[in-house]
Each structure stands twice: as C-alpha cells, then as structure tokens.
C-alpha cells in the first residue's frame, strides 16, 4: 500500500464537488444581496475559485490534526502496555487492539500502526520505522517520539522507562494544547457569527423593505459603496483568521 505523505493533500472528487457548490452559493448570495444582479454571479466566481488553495490547506491541516489526535491515543495505549512489562514491539500489537475499541478500522492511524507492525515482523529497526513515519506525518510530536526512541536505542539505556517518561510528557503537552484549542473554537464561532451578520441584515432589509436599498443598486456610486462594504467584510475575515489561527 502506498504510504501517505501528510504534508501534501490531493483533493477528492467529493472535496471538489462540495467546493464548487459552496462557490455557487456564495456567488449567488453576494450577487443578490450586494448588487441585485445575477450578472455579478459570473463575475464573482473567478474570485472565489482563488480560494481553492485555502481549501487544500484546510483539508491538509484537518487530516494532520486528526492523525495527531489518534497518535496521542496510540501513545496512551503504548504506555499501558509498556507498564505491563511488554517490549516496545509487542506494545504496538496490543495498542492496535486498544485503538480498535475507539476508532473505526479505516482511520488513518491503523494504516500507520500496521506499517510499523509489518516492519517489525521482518526485523526492521523500530527507530527507522518511526522516523520514516514522523517525516511523512508533519506532526512534531511524532517526529520527537521517533528521535527519542532512536536515541534511546543507540544509548542502550532503559528504553521502556525513557519512552514512558517521554510519552507522559507529550500527553501532558497535548492536554494543554487541547484546552487551548477548545478556547479558540469558541472564538472562531464568534468570529463566524459576526462576519455573517452583515449578510443577515441585508437579507432582512431586502425582505422587509426592499425599496430602502434600491438607491444602492444599478448605479455606479451604489455599486462602489457596496463593493467597499464587501471588501471590508473580507478584510475582517482575513484578520480574524490571522488572529485566531494560533498553531497548537
């Protein structure tokens, strides 16, 4: 099976379809609310298509986040097995059984754990398997774990104790990051609500008193003014994303 490079993302047909539908909805909504013209629908589409890179980046980050979360669960299972006296190699086999109780077998982590277990069956060094996984994953915790296992193997120290201490340290850091992520999630929802408010206000005015907005439609000053308003919304969206987008 081809190994996944998590630092790259190839959009699926479903991703592209969902994105195309989103672009159409955005173009129709803005054309109706800000310009009262479906001609703007055609003009606006190219601008939204430029957001395609953002889609790729978001999908890539979501996949890495999911892998990182599942790796944290794997580490917890490894600590349990190591504490029971199993070797690191045997601990991966036991950890896989624990993961099956929490995740569907189609999840990303199973392909990686199976790759490690299969490598161990042909006597591949555990440190090399983890290092290769760490490089592909794009997850700092996985790379650090691989480096520590490699250093412990070379130094000839108490591998199990070193790994247990390392895993506990990584899990503590992960718990802190999850708390921060929870706080940021609330702020992201607040930002989305604030950015959707202008659309809601325009929609309400068009339904309740459409004549009130007629002065802003089908004339150059009105079009320019509405374009400035629209640009302001997108600028606010850009800055909100920059402020809230704290890597954790």
What does this structure look like?
This protein has one domain (13-244). The protein contains 9 helices and no strands. The chain has helices spanning 13-35, 39-49, 52-83, 88-100, 108-121, 126-137, 140-155, 159-208, 220-244. The longest helix is centred in the last third of the chain and has 50 residues, at 159-208. It is an all-alpha fold. Helix 3 (52-83) runs antiparallel to helix 8 and helix 5 (108-121) runs antiparallel to helix 6. It starts with 12 loop residues before the first helix and ends with a helix.
Secondary structure layout:
Elements: H1 13-35, H2 39-49, H3 52-83, H4 88-100, H5 108-121, H6 126-137, H7 140-155, H8 159-208, H9 220-244
Helix pairs in contact: 1-2, 3-4, 3-8, 4-5, 5-6, 6-7, 7-8, 8-9
Overall structural domain count: 1
Percentage of residues assigned to helices: over 70%
> Number of DSSP strands?
0
Shape: elongated
> What is the SS-derived class?
mainly alpha
Distance between the termini: 31 Å
Q: Mind describing the biggest β-sheet?
A: none
Q: What Rg, in angstroms, do the CA atoms define?
A: 25 Å
The SSE order reads: HHHHHHHHH
Count up the helices.
9
Mean pLDDT: 84
Strand residues, percent? under 5%
Question: Which residues sit in consecutive blocks of at least 5 with pLDDT less than 50?
Answer: none
